[in-house]
Write a structure and sequence with these properties.
Two copies of one chain form a homodimer. Chain A has a domain of 172 residues: Carbamate kinase (3-Layer(aba) Sandwich), CATH 3.40.1160. Helices cover 33% and strands 27% of the residues of chain A. Chain A has twelve helices and 20 strands. Chain A has an eight-stranded mixed sheet with strand order 3-6-2-1-9-11-12-10, sandwiched between helices. In chain A, strands 13-18-20-19 form a four-stranded antiparallel sheet. In chain A, helix 7 runs antiparallel to helix 8 and helix 11 packs across helix 12. The interface between A and B is large, with 37 and 37 residues. Chains A, B: Belongs to the aspartokinase family.
Amino acid sequence: MARVVMKFGGTSVADLDRIRNAAQRVKREVESGNEVAVVVSAMAGVTNQLVDYVQSAGSLYDLREYDTVVSSGEQVTSGLLSIVLQDMGINARSWLGWQGPIITNDAHGSARIERIEVDDIIRRFGEGQVAVFAGFQGVGPDGRISTLGRGGSDTSAVAIAAALKADRCDIYTDVDGIYTTDPRIVAKARKMDKITYEEMLELASQGAKVLQTRSVEMAMKHGVRVQVLSSFEDKPGTLVVDEDEIVEQAIVSGIAYNRDEAKVTLRSVRDTPGVAASIFGPLMAAAINVDMIVQNISADKKTTDMTFTVAKADLNRAISVLEDKSNGLTYDSLDSDPSVAKISVIGVGMRSHAGVAQKMFSALADKGINIEVISTSEIKISVLVAEEYTELALRSLHTAYGLDSED
Amino acid sequence: MARVVMKFGGTSVADLDRIRNAAQRVKREVESGNEVAVVVSAMAGVTNQLVDYVQSAGSLYDLREYDTVVSSGEQVTSGLLSIVLQDMGINARSWLGWQGPIITNDAHGSARIERIEVDDIIRRFGEGQVAVFAGFQGVGPDGRISTLGRGGSDTSAVAIAAALKADRCDIYTDVDGIYTTDPRIVAKARKMDKITYEEMLELASQGAKVLQTRSVEMAMKHGVRVQVLSSFEDKPGTLVVDEDEIVEQAIVSGIAYNRDEAKVTLRSVRDTPGVAASIFGPLMAAAINVDMIVQNISADKKTTDMTFTVAKADLNRAISVLEDKSNGLTYDSLDSDPSVAKISVIGVGMRSHAGVAQKMFSALADKGINIEVISTSEIKISVLVAEEYTELALRSLHTAYGLDSED
């Protein structure tokens, strides 16, 4: 007997037929003698519709009311799946965020889970009952519904798995696992059997949208074994596990890309102590996140060129902030370019292997792809290139690191 | 300063434009210095969609899950209206059934309100805050969402008005008041300025679908002054009040009709003590409501013909029950007729006036309309006629009782 959390995303519960399909998978786990908690997203499209309503209702909407409205999508799915399960003869009941309760902090709209009461759930496991949680939601200290941010049902699932000390947390979705890179772009992309939390975290935050970043952090922190698998096919997916569970570690596990950033360059900034703060301070104050940063010292050593990236959606605001001379910032010109892509190679094996970066740079150079910015972390190397080279860069790197599938 | 409850039905909050229109009315009350609680239905069509989902999910669905799913419609509207009000500069917040809380019994799907906690709401009135309640819902003793049955938002509104000791409870809807009869059938129907609770109760249960019957019972019990008015026009509606508030009482106030019943006749039932119980007992056991009942003693005084009405939707089940001879019921033949209409004249003035029934019978006879069944109460006379005479009967009676408008 195992204790299992099964999470079904929006496309896996998009209509009643798919909810029935999900229920069949739940039934199979129950009939294997497992204790089962299910976490559901809203039916595909519902959350977008509700968010549209909220945004049309008021420009500066109250996040507590946003949560009240938007959480209703998962509420509906949890009730419907419970009914379908009962109809199949499975004892099941729905649990809303305030019923568990799943207690969060008061950051409405992007709340963090603080505690989950599971005693009653576990007692009901003993009676053979399946718990069907509405994902994405909890209850704040103000006694009102809170939501966890877009993609939050993944985080709900992992948090519930941690609280229940579940043996695994299966994330059913519309892809069959985590790939070495985007298979829509690189035909030879391979599905990975296993990936470490750290790598998944880099992949998730670098734009591979399979799992919410926060859910991976939480899985790593609590040692929850996460599996990403298809709800439409019967085959194993990708296990996200601790590094020591992976015997033979590839140096590079995957290659991610992100086309949502834009490049900003400030030319001939006066190079004095504190210049970085005078640029990034006002951006931070405007809640604009800066990702990659490069500073080139100029020939005369009196001015410097500063290049960095921001989210495309923030580009215009960033320019306004930087053009506001009241910040005391002095530079010759401001260039911006939204047509860039960030390409990242990721792998825990990098830690113990030299030459990984060199291989990346030469593979790109061979194809005539100019690298505009470089940033690195312990298990990741990211480069910024012109957006038009995205596909070529992904394919070249995928081959260079020996990731291509053999068929 | 007054304390006001404003209830907006599904067509009055059908989309964001209509929600803004409702918000304008709320704003006007707030700006008049009133304390305001609002009760909202789901956006028109939403509840039907959710009920469809539930019915497709499982044939014998769990009413607790039904409540979880179906209550989400009002949840969405309460959040959206709160955002729209805030956007207009009005301090407002949504209240779900479990937040007040509005405590009900455990009859999921058709729960009754037992208690409403209003201390916090009243305290917030003092801070100028408008309370926007999700109608139709409460929380049961099991800590799960309960709903009050279709049309239950009217009952929510009246119950909240009673708990708040509100000065009035305004029910905004897509008609501008209560009419002497259905204006779609009788062009000369008049809007009433006032109607008594008792008359409204008879009208509501006789098929005038403006107010949920239970909400009228509750208004009568607690003396809540209810006004039915249009959310699309600026004019007074119809006040539903205590009898002693109406100075000059018409003998007949209104004429209702109901085409949802079917007639059943059992011929030559053996007439022995207990025969009625042997017919209606099994029907009751099958949860089939019987409305009008007539028993004719036969010439030989040994058998009797029994005629009664059931809801059309229950007719086939009723026939099955009556044809099941294991009940010990003996009769010659069973006739049924779904093509009937019940016409009712209603008025508290009837109590002190003779000849009301006679006028009804002769008005119908003048038009050649045959009366099949008669039943009466203190303030109502109902007759069953062939369905095809519905419009003719309504118009004739409307004229006969002097209800026609003069324009």
